[in-house]
Amino acid sequence: MNEPLVSPPAADPAPPAPEFEVQFQKKEKLIAGYLAAFAVVYYRHAPERDPAQLQATLHIANAALDFPAAAVTLGLHNGLALAEVAAEATAQLALALAGVAEELGAGIVRARISFPAPEAQRPDQTWCVTLGFEQPEQLEAVAVGFSCTEAAGGLRGEPFMPAHVQSVFEQLATAPGATVGHVFFLAPEEVAQLRQFGSGPPAVPSEGPQQLHRLFEETARTYPNQTAVQWAGRAVPYHTLNAQADALAARLQAAGVQPGDFVGLLMHKSVALYAGMLAVLKAGAAYVPLDLSYPADRVTFILNDCGARALLVNDEAPDYLAAWPGQVLHLAEAPAAGAPALLGAVAGGPESIAYVIYTSGTTGLPKGVLIPHRSICHLVRAEQLLFQTTPQDRVAQGFSVAFDASLEELWLAWAAGAALVPVPEETMKAPDALPDFLSTNQVTVFSTVPTLLSLLASAVPSLRLLILGGEVCPPELLAKWASRQCRVVNTYGPTEATVVATAADFVPGQKLTIGRPLAGYEALLLDQLGQLVPLGATGELCIGGPALAAGYLNRPELTAAKFNTVAGLATGFSGRLYRTGDLARFEADGNIDFLGRIDTQVKIRGFRVELAEIESLLLQWPGIRNAAVALKTGDDGVQKLIAYLILDPAHPLLDAKAVRAYLRERLAPYMMPAALVPLAAFPLLTSGKVDRKALPYPVVGDAAPTRELALPRTPTEAAVYAAWQKRFDTADLSTTDDFFEIGGNSLLASLIISELRQQPQFAGLSVKEMYTRRTIEALAQAVDAAAAAAPAPAAEGPAGPPVPRASHALRVFTAVLQAAAVFLFYLVPVLVLNTSIALRPWAAAQPEWAIAALVAAAVLAYVPVACGLVVVFKWLIIGRFRAGEYPLWGLYYFRFWVVKKLVEAAPTQLLSATPYLNVFYRLLGARIGHGVYLGSTRLMCFDLLTLDDGASIAREAGLLGYRIERDRLILGPIRVGRDAYVGLRAILETNTELGDEAELDDLSVVAAGHRVPAREGWQGSPSQRVRTLAGAAPSRVRPGAPYMVVQTLAIALMLLLPTGASVPVFGFFYEAVERYGLLPALATLVPLAAAYVLVLGALLALVKRFVAGRQLAGTLPLYSLAYVRHWLADAVLAQSLSVLKPVYATIYAPFWLRLLGAKVGRRAEISTLNHISADHLTVEAGAFLADSVSVGAPRVQRGQVAVEATVVGARTFIGNSAVLAGGTVLGTGQLIGALSTAPPAGAPPNTSWVGSPSFLLPNRPVSATFTDALTFDPPTHLVWARGAMEFFKITLPFAFVSATFAAVYHYCAWHLRNGYPFWISALLGTGVLLGTVLALSLLTAATKWVLIGRYRPSEKPLWSSYVWRNELVNSLCESYVFLYWVAPLLGTPFATSFFLLMGSRIGHSVYLDTTEITEFDLAWVADHAVLNNGSTIQTHLFEDRVMKMSTLRIGRYATVGTSAVVLYDSVIGPGATLKSLSLLMKGETLPANTRWQGIPCAFIPGGGNG
Length: 1506
Hints:
By secondary structure, this protein is an alpha/beta fold.
């Protein structure tokens, strides 16, 4: 019986892929490559790079439409190979393009890849690369463009970004092994610019003295009588100071100081200090300056570290020096009596050390920087070129000589023959007195730090040159100092690069930078691996050139780390470089923008914070003279950012609230200072910089209230923490925070889980975990525990088609056979109609009662005849169903499909819940025992089905015995044991068994390959054991003869009612045709359709009231007369749901249900229900029952029918496909999610529940706010408007059906009346039927495009015309197009045709066995996807009485299982499977090639085929 009925054509083994598929694959590969390349370039823009998860957003479009935006996550680190990045980008892009059909993808014309701009404050701050595919024939010639949103800023190398991306893209193929951290991608023009920007002016002249003291001697010879030092009212000329230095140098030599020795200077400012400094140099030694404020430990450490030969002092030596072994020479004391010593010849040259400056070290101990004569002499000459000092200048000397900035002051004067004016220490400590001192001494050149300058109350008129350095300089500070008379220069330079390396003039209104390198200097920006950073990117500032220090004294490891010798950088630089540890970037004009220290960037709650950025904003606030921000740790161990402020005396009061509001608008939340602390002055270091460590911790009351945060302790916690931070946009986050208590909701949960799933360790994480493990800590522990318990993962296969697969020729052949079969399906009703027309002459001669009896007999014979024919054809076409796997679109599948269509066409709904259905299924091959109750018609593969004695199958239960998955038809056996119970809408998948007396509860599923043991109760999806059942005696229920007679009469009555209602309607229409002709008579169809609804409704109501009667709650015996009345009541409702379906989801539905016995409150909304027990239903005011809900179905088990009352509380919402068992009582304001069961009894009002079994949703996203007038309490005019629109929603489908019948009837009657042969009339009539159905379906599509246009993501209130127009379109689809066009085509390649016409984006070779697609444009289904029987593509929900719509995407070869529900904003990745009776939550993404099942869905480990 398994041989094909028709021999197929020979299979072509491997047909070439269609051109559109090839095009799509090429574009997909290109986009993935550019995504990987852009990710690498973007990642490399950070100078210090930790492993990171980068999230990009893709906006891809073809010429006609934009694809849904998609987010992808790529994990990068420096050591990752380009090939690995490309592989991950390819996998992520496949997920991003899930739902995009190959034909749509082949037409892609542009793709935009965007990353958040570094330091982005808002989502609109992005960097974007745009790819253009304008020439399909030249795919390799992709146009690459780059854009940076205006708000993002910060990128100066924008013109080169396309070249960077293109370079990395090309290296994906040419150098796949290159690593992310080392791949070189800078453009040649960019390198040239970097070379230009990084080089100072031409080198200073090399002639002249090359040692510092020789420079002074040259000046003394040139300007012997010029003042060298102006101190304490005394002017010391150059020749005098030189002579004093010579004499002191001779004294040092006499004391044993030799070339190469170190000599300490512990002296207050005086002429002797400067003479001593020069004397040490003249003696061939290097001086080591020490500040008098240094503590004893620091002084002794430095003297011991450098091995100082001597220490010069000009006061009494401190007592702690008594233990120091070196010489202490007191310069105020006269030398020993005797002949004056003569200065001897000194060995040494430019490479000998001139001085050592000790700076702070990261270990807590100071480190000595060795500066050779070559370096300091180069600086002196470079600054002469830069500052052009003259003998007429008077240079202030304010810095301690222990700070290297003092060298700048000294030699700006001494190299030019100018006067050095030392500032007394007490004056330097009294900023109010300093301006007067400078003015009195006619100082023209002043070098200082911004902190000190901010404290000066008045300007200094004599100044012509103001030099700033040592710390970040706020430009606001300099505005009052710059003038035509006074040049203001901002300088930068670490001690290791000899005082100053770059400089920039301050120009009001222009950005203040640290300028360009001085003459002979080189400035390079490198990343942590020593690679050049792109132009405009942030990098570590590295200094090269002849002014570098020799290194660190006694610290060879540190010297090697900080002073690198490089060769062959792309800019041409080679030689020694000093890595400053400072961040900077090149501006467009070549100036260097200083961005702060790498090692002083603080990190708070996982965020890097540059303190200077906060300080700069504070300085822009009126009344704040200076600001310093520090990271402080309180007694509680919590770190806080504290802002310390010096206020302008003119504004002594600070409006802290206003300052906070100002900062909040400009700073990220994590950058907000916890406290604003005004101070009179800042504690300063010897250098004059702010001593941040000495800033006081705020007293109680200064700090904003905060809490102790638990921060991540493990990598898993860190990953979850980062995902939460991103979605909550806050730094105030602890690993112990409850997700829902801090504002999380169901949508956020789905988004976070989906984002985490893109990382391998989270691939199997379920959304439900967020509800049961609601803290970061608990969620991470669950993930780690699952990883530890999981077996080694199996090798993952590609997301391609399974094997075997039907060949292309066989698929085409099968499609042709299916088309022919569909034509035959349409031919059957035309044959019946033609027969009735042919018999009209004979019937006209019969009495009316005989005609009526004949019609009734024909109607009643329809059920046994139709069922009998189905049985015969089943055995002829397929014989017995056999377990196994078969190629989809193959010949066995074709036979299976024909039988399935025949079974679905059989009138089984009328036989449901009666013994006749058992007989029918037995005849089809099912093994059904005695006393089996069959309330469901969702059975197939009958030969594989065993229902033992007493088994009970509730309504809508699914025992199909087959599923389609990735181009395979899979058949398997199902067994339901003796007296076992299968609940409402429960499902047994293939190869399953429900043991004797076992129970499977409502909305539960037994997964493929599983068995439920005897006498156990299982619940949920996926089901789990929830109870153990006591055994009982086998049920002995048998239908008796009286029952069978009455049941048969009840079935006959329900058969005759629709026919009886149609007789007067068609009678009127016939009269209209006879009197006015066919076309004019068509105008009567709408009012006649309304009449049909009224007549049939009246007949059904009469049967319900007077035949079935009112049903009482309680228990009644199965197969009794009382049961027949109960069955009849349910059949009336089922008939109305089937024939009068357009009435539901209208304002008329509550009136109809009240007529049938239900209690329905004011403004309740009731959609197209699957089942209700009207007599036992109470729906209170404002409640909402969405589509496909089952409410209050009786429980039939062991020969008893339990009927219980069901109550839906006021303003309660029941989601699509939800199941409320009989006896459920819901309170006010509750929400039951889609495909969910009722909550436990006593659930609080105003709570939300989802799942099977249901669990509490603590929070859920609330719809856009609409007034009650648009949701719950509309004004009268809206009620009337909706009523008018819904009149057409109800009548138009009936009018369409009537028009179709009229056209076919008229056409066939005309042909038979005019002598055409019977078969010709039948064949042509079938063509007319097809043409009419097609025409009215096209009219339906046109109606959609006119009334709705294109569906777009949006929210619309219930009482709006948009919703009503949408319902009208849906009514035409559901009650006409789906029945007469789509349903016959389901399971064929043509099934998607109408959905494509309506705007859905569905690919080729999609298996479609559902019509549950509504907002058509929002559904994206890619090629070879499978949508199994009864699956729902839910692109909208009506929570809060607001229609929320959005897109939904299903990838290539993805599978949606039987009765599964996919909610909007979700993505099913390529090759992923959502198994039967599963719920994919809003915003959830299933990774490629994974398997999921459950409500909500959970990961199935192992990826088996079950």
